[in-house]
């Protein structure tokens, strides 16, 4: 029996599985429909589909935590904070969403914990972590008993300045353990030991909110699987399931992070070190930017309406997937998404009870998608898609072809706007970056994105529907640690102490994961004195001395100038302020090798009516038959097991040495 490493990515519509033979390097892929009611069912069905294999290691990308937040399924959640700060969530920040400005009609959304479920406890620390007045054990007991009486079992604790000294929060946890043993507790000093009390509070509460669901899911999956496994984290690393249940917030962008990393490795192997990645699924599209082989990392991310200041790959998500629903606004205009038909009931063509036209139905109507998915495993009801598109066209007063094309055009512009947010709005020229597109629906709009954005090319990897699952097998074990230390006069001794403490925490965690020789990456957040937000820069390894400090400050000036167009290198009026010190502890793994494509055998080309600018008989190519150097001239369609690539008139697709299809304008 072959020993393999397996990656399982649970998406909104399909669960994708990739297995890498640890001896030969052979890569096996498959897909199975997701099971939203219990994602573990789809997970196990996918592994069974691979056949009899000895799973040496299993890595899982899960959407359990993400969906909990996106769908606002937050129940039985309480908040404990410092006396006098019970309205911290109500005050929040002054910013309002783009497009509203200062408009009076914007209504602040409900808080993650309503104010009647917020309780406070006496005691106070200053910004250095020194006690101003003592922790009130009496009030803590009263609060714990109040939550127990209310039946609130998930509780977040965030006391003022606990990033500097976690003692009061830990005493609160001890009281909760004693007085309310059923409670699931998250402390801000464990989740995010960083200043800015509102963001720290919300991040802690998000962790507490998803912890019960994640613990239940992981326990269920572990029991049914019968062996240990690891879970993908938002920061681009993995962690064992037994550890991740204690910090579930780190998994909120689990699947999309794996996709960006897998695409980055595939692109760099083919000679493209800086690319945009686009993961098109059934429910949404996830976009990231890769520069010099590494996806961008942010701590200013959010999931749905909740800010999450944990390190995560910088991903923009839009509701523009294959299942996105086309609808008519009250003004009579055609809209697409963000609502999705998902996996159940799915698009009209799935024949599972769907009643609304989706992006997939438009592709099927135009002939750009074959009348079946997964090599014939899932037959599609072409007539149902046709009937739905015609009915929508009648309401709009358009032809069915014009309506279906319009649905795809709107979806393409939704995706292009997400790409602009990560490039143009951040000073990057989108025309400098090839686009790596993957996911089941990712390649379907490749040609339109080239025209809309002026992209040099679009690269579609082999087995594009399984790139996220492949990405799970390319990532190291990784944990991130942070400590706020705000100062204009850096004490090298204090910096040594903090970094040593953070590296010790990272080392202990990696030791539990079985890594005897971890790698530590330092970084620091700096700003000019008087600024509200900081810039993160990598910090050198080795001795922390004057030379080390000068190097970090120099990197900050350079990064600030690159981001904002100016720096104050030689202006003593603008001092540099240190804000946060960070350490990432990394346990390196052996990555799978992407092999060059061997010469393919002969493959048949069929013909099917497809509508681009007009309906005509169009060549249909099987991707498995296209060897290195093969060229396909549009109009044409390239089909494979998990995805389809429509090549519009005026475009050419070429196959490179690694089997990637590269599309460009003639």
Automatic annotation (TrEMBL):
Acetophenone carboxylase-like C-terminal domain span: 497-658
Domain of life: Bacteria
Domain Hydantoinase/oxoprolinase N-terminal: 5-177
Residues covered by the Hydantoinase A/oxoprolinase domain: 200-480
Organism of this sequence: Nonomuraea maheshkhaliensis
Record's protein name: Hydantoinase/oxoprolinase family protein
């Amino acid at each position: 029996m072959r020993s393999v490493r397996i990656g399982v990515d649970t998406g909104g519509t399909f669960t994708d599985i990739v297995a890498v033979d640890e001896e030969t390097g052979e890569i096996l892929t498959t897909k199975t429909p997701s099971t939203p009611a219990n994602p573990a069912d789809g997970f196990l069905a996918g592994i069974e589909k691979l056949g009899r294999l000895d799973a040496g290691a299993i890595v899982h990308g899960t959407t359990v935590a993400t969906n909990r937040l996106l769908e606002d399924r937050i129940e039985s959640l309480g908040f404990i904070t410092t006396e006098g700060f019970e309205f911290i969530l109500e005050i929040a920040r002054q910013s309002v969403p783009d497009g509203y400005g200062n408009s009076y009609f914007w209504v602040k959304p409900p808080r993650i914990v309503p104010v009647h479920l917020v309780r406070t406890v006496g005691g106070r620390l200053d910004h250095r972590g020194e006690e101003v007045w003592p922790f009130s054990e009496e009030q803590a007991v009263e609060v714990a008993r109040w939550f127990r009486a209310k039946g609130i079992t998930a509780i977040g604790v965030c006391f003022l300045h606990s990033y500097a000294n976690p003692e009061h929060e830990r005493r609160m946890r001890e009281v909760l353990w004693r007085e309310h043993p059923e409670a699931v507790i998250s402390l801000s000093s464990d989740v995010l030991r960083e200043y800015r009390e509102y963001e720290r509070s919300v991040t802690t509460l998000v962790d507490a909110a998803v912890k019960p669901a994640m613990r239940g899911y992981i326990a269920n999956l572990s029991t049914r699987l019968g062996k240990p496994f690891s879970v993908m984290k938002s920061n681009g690393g993995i962690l064992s399931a037994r550890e991740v249940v204690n910090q579930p917030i780190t998994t909120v962008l689990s699947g999309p992070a794996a996709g960006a990393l897998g695409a980055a490795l595939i692109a760099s192997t083919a000679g493209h070190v800086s690319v945009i990645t686009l993961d098109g699924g059934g429910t949404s599209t996830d976009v990231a930017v890769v520069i010099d082989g590494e996806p961008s990392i942010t701590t200013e991310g959010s999931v749905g309406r909740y800010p999450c200041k944990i390190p995560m790959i910088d991903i923009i998500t839009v509701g523009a997937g294959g299942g996105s629903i086309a609808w008519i606004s009250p003004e009579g205009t055609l809209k697409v998404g963000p609502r999705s038909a998902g996996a159940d009931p799915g698009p009209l063509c799935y024949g599972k009870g769907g009643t609304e036209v989706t992006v997939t139905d438009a592709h099927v109507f135009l002939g750009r998608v074959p009348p079946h998915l997964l090599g014939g495993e899932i037959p599609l009801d072409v007539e149902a898609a046709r009937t739905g598109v015609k009915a929508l066209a009648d309401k709009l007063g358009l032809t069915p072809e014009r309506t279906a094309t319009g649905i795809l055009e709107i979806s393409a512009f939704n995706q292009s706007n997400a790409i602009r947010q990560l490039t143009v709005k951040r000073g990057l020229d989108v025309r400098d970056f090839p686009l790596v597109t993957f996911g089941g629906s990712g390649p379907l709009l490749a040609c339109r994105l080239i025209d809309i954005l002026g992209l040099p090319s679009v690269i579609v990897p082999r087995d594009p529907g399984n790139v996220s699952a492949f990405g799970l097998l390319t990532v190291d074990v990784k944990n991130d640690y942070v400590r706020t230390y705000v100062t204009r006069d850096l004490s090298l001794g204090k910096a040594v102490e903090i970094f040593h403490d953070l590296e010790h925490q990272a080392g202990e965690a990696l030791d539990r994961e079985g890594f005897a020789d971890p790698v530590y990456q330092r970084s620091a957040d700096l700003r000019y004195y008087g600024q509200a937000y900081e810039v993160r820069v990598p910090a050198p390894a080795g001795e922390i001395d004057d030379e080390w400090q000068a190097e970090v400050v120099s990197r900050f000036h350079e990064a600030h100038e690159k981001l904002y167009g100016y720096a104050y290198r030689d202006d003593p009026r603008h001092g540099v302020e240190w804000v946060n010190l960070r350490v990432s502890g990394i346990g390196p793994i052996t990555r799978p090798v992407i092999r060059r494509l061997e010469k393919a055998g002969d493959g048949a080309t069929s013909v099917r009516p497809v509508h681009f600018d007009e309906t005509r008989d169009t060549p249909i190519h099987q991707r498995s038959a296209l060897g290195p150097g093969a060229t396909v001239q549009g109009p044409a369609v390239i089909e494979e097991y998990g995805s389809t690539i429509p090549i519009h008139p005026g475009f050419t697709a070429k196959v490179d040495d690694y089997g990637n299809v590269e599309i460009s304008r003639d």
